[in-house]
């Protein structure tokens, strides 16, 4: 055993050497030649990503679903609201009724959300909360330009969904129950074994025909890669694995791949490192950021991803959710917190369906933060859980202060 004083001296030496190395690295990074080569490297990265987009099966000319949610404006950040799926699937407070799920989704759409995950066609033995997804889709008021996506893990899930769509056909006056599915895998086989009962390679083999058939039936397909930075079973994940799995999903025909920090443990610099690797081969327009907030870095990770060109962010109202494989994990980054952080930053958070002219669903250009705060409180109270959105809590406190002030002024005016 090493005696304590020797250990602490060794530790001091290590710290000193580390700080010298850090300073050296900083100098090197900012050396003009190094900076030039970095610029060259990032140019090459962009060229390589562009050439991927133009030569692979995701090329715009070959794929009518090839665009993601992104609007033309590069300053627009598009939101995918995952609360009704990723959030509710992990709720432990008893089975949530179809009525509550439907009301949650309809409230979100009224607030301006255009991309919402409405549920999953997965095994009810694995995820009991998602069992009523068919009923949810049938009960929803469908706004034509809103995407009500559902998760599909395998051929059985797709076949169940297609039967539902066949027995509830769309018409000029009623849009289809859904026009989008999401398939999902991960960067590590330990995670896919826990989540899908197979390895990453096996999951990709199962997903490929699902993507093909869904697209043949006119559905657009989004892909997910979980555990892109940390895996609860394997620890730090190699970014090249993330890149390779995401690339495979895009080549299969997913219009976008969402990169998930499933356990919410990633730090911003680790997200940056992961993105730098993924972007060497894939275009940012085909990627989305999906951050959980377990360690409180969710918003920081969103703000790290956006300057890399990531223009689609998944989030969950009230920060609903958790992760069954990561004890203590909280939900997705809260939608309210993401919107607040991006306000007045030069970016606009879109949910801009043109809308129909019905009185309940009036079209909006952006997602309405005040309404989302109300929804976050409504669903948190309904489920008997804490509201995990910091912005939600702050706005509520501000409203209470303003109400008290108004009452005081009323009293004064009576005197
Ligand atoms: C994929 C399976 C089904 C494999 O599970 P399995 O046990 O290997 O399935 P199987 O093929 O052996 O079938 C077993 C039974 O399940 C049934 N079954 C089989 N497939 C289905 C289906 N689609 N829908 C309904 N039932 C199904 C099948 O019919 C059979 O029924 P039985 O004969 O025993 O009565 C299972 O592992 C599963 O459902 N996994 C899904 C888990 C899940 O939903 N996880 C959460 C979503 S992923 C996520 O949250 C991460 C994400 C996306 O948010 C991003 C991030 O944060 O990182």
Distance between the termini: 80 Å
The low-confidence parts are: 1-67, 352-364
What's the total count of β strands?
11
Cα-based radius of gyration, to the nearest Å = 23 Å
H/E element order:
HHEHHEHEHEHHEEEHEHEHEHEHH
Largest sheet: 9 strands, parallel
Q: What is the count of DSSP helices, taking H or I runs of 4+ residues? A: 14
Strand content: 5-15%
Helical amount among residues, as a percent range? 40-55%
Shape: globular
Tell me the structural class. alpha/beta
Heteromolecules bound: 3-hydroxy-3-methylglutaryl-coenzyme A
What order do the strands of the largest sheet run in, or round the barrel if closed? Answer: 2-3-4-5-8-9-10-1-11
Mean pLDDT: 83
InterPro entries: Aldolase_TIM, HMGL, PYR_CT
Enzyme class: lyase
Keywords: Lyase, Metal-binding
Family: Belongs to the HMG-CoA lyase family.
SSE topology:
Layout: H1 4-30, H2 32-55, E1 76-81, H3 83-87, H4 98-110, E2 115-120, H5 133-139, E3 147-151, H6 155-167, E4 180-186, H7 189-196, H8 200-216, E5 220-226, E6 230-231, E7 235-236, H9 239-252, E8 256-261, H10 268-278, E9 287-291, H11 298-305, E10 312-315, H12 335-342, E11 348-350, H13 369-383, H14 390-414
Parallel strand pairs: 1-10, 1-11, 2-3, 3-4, 4-5, 5-8, 8-9, 9-10
Antiparallel strand pairs: 6-7
Bound molecules: 3-hydroxy-3-methylglutaryl-coenzyme A.
3-hydroxy-3-methylglutaryl-coenzyme A is lined by residues 86, 89, 120-123, 126-127, 151, 153-154, 156-157, 184, 195-197, 224, 226, 260, 262, 290.
Describe this structure in words.
The chain has 415 residues and is an alpha/beta fold. The protein has helices at residues 4-30, 32-55, 83-87, 98-110, 133-139, 155-167, 189-196, 200-216, 239-252, 268-278, 298-305, 335-342, 369-383, 390-414, and strands spanning 76-81, 115-120, 147-151, 180-186, 220-226, 230-231, 235-236, 256-261, 287-291, 312-315, 348-350. The strands form two sheets. It has a nine-stranded parallel beta sheet. Strand 2, helix 5 and strand 3 form a beta-alpha-beta unit. Helix 4 (98-110) runs antiparallel to helix 13 (369-383), helix 12 runs antiparallel to helix 13 (369-383) and helix 13 packs across helix 14 (390-414). The longest helix has 27 residues, at 4-30. 3-hydroxy-3-methylglutaryl-coenzyme A is lined by residues 86, 89, 120-123, 126-127, 151, 153-154, 156-157, 184, 195-197, 224, 226, 260, 262, 290. Pfam families: HMGL-like (PF00682). It is an enzyme of class 4 (lyase). InterPro entries: Aldolase_TIM, HMGL, PYR_CT.
């Amino acid at each position: 055993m090493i005696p304590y004083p020797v250990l602490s001296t060794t530790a001091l030496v290590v710290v000193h050497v580390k700080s010298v190395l850090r300073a050296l690295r900083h100098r090197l990074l900012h050396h003009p030649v190094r900076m030039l080569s970095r610029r060259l490297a990032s140019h090459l990265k962009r060229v390589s990503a562009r050439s991927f987009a133009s030569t692979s099966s995701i090329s715009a000319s070959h794929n009518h679903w090839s665009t993601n949610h992104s609007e033309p404006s590069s300053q627009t950040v598009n939101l995918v609201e995952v609360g009704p799926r990723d959030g509710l699937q992990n709720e432990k407070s008893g089975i949530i009724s179809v009525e509550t799920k439907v009301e949650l989704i309809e409230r979100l759409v009224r607030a301006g959300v255009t991309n919402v995950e409405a549920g999953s066609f997965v095994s009810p033995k694995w995820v009991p909360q998602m069992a009523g997804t068919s009923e949810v889709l049938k009960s929803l008021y469908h706004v034509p330009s809103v995407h009500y996506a559902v998760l599909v893990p395998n051929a059985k899930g797709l076949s169940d969904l297609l039967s539902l769509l066949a027995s509830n056909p769309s018409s000029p006056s009623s849009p289809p129950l859904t026009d989008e599915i999401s398939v999902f895998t991960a960067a590590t086989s330990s995670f896919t074994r826990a989540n899908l009962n197979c390895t990453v390679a096996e999951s990709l083999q199962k997903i490929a025909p699902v993507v093909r058939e869904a697209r043949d039936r006119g559905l657009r397909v989004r892909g997910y890669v979980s555990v892109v930075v940390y895996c609860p079973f394997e620890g730090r994940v190699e970014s090249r694995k993330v890149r390779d799995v995401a690339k495979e999903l895009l080549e299969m025909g997913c219009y976008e791949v969402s990169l998930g920090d499933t356990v919410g443990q990633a730090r911003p610099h680790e997200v940056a490192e992961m993105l730098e690797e993924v972007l060497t081969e894939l275009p940012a327009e085909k990627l989305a950021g999906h951050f959980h907030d377990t360690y409180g870095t969710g918003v920081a990770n969103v703000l790290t991803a956006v300057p890399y060109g990531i223009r689609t962010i998944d989030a969950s109202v009230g920060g609903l959710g958790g992760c069954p494989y990561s004890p203590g994990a909280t939900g997705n980054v809260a939608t309210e917190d993401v919107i607040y952080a991006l306000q007045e930053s030069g970016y606009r958070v879109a949910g801009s369906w043109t809308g129909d002219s019905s009185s309940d669903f009036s079209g909006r250009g952006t997602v309405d933060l005040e309404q989302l705060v109300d929804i976050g409180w409504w669903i948190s109270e309904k489920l008997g859980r804490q509201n995990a959105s910091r912005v939600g809590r702050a706005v509520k406190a501000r409203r209470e202060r303003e109400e008290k002030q108004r009452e005081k002024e009323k009293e004064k005016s009576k005197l």
